[in-house]
Amino acid sequence: MKVLVDTSVWSLFLRRRTRTTLNPEELKLVGLLREATQDGRVAIIGPVRQEILSGIRDKSQFSRTEQILDPFPDEDLTKDFVEAARFFNLCRDRGVECGVVDILICSVAVRRRFAVLTNDQALIRCLRVLGISQP
Length: 135
Hints:
This protein has 135 residues and is mainly α. It contains seven helices and three strands; from the N terminus they run βααβααααβα. It has a three-stranded parallel β-sheet with strand order 2-1-3.
């Protein structure tokens, strides 16, 4: 099963690489990302790519990060926006607030039957409401 990787996990992988700075849960997530990368199961969407690259002020670091992400093509989002709005409303009706990118991740995951790899508690609450799997 493909894995749609959220910004929170990419951030752990790209910016905090030393084992001493990651807790056991974060190490597990980075391991799952490495495994999915080796197996060719990683998926990404453009808004996540933008979140990852936004704020990297050093041009050489920006370029290195862009090159790391290059092998992973963005999933086409053309059919996901309306479903994302439906999911947003469903989650809100159940008392769970979801960010725009988080709920778009949910829509992509459902339509393509992807699991979602995240460390973001707000997104995890959305995943639970919508019954979306995590690796």
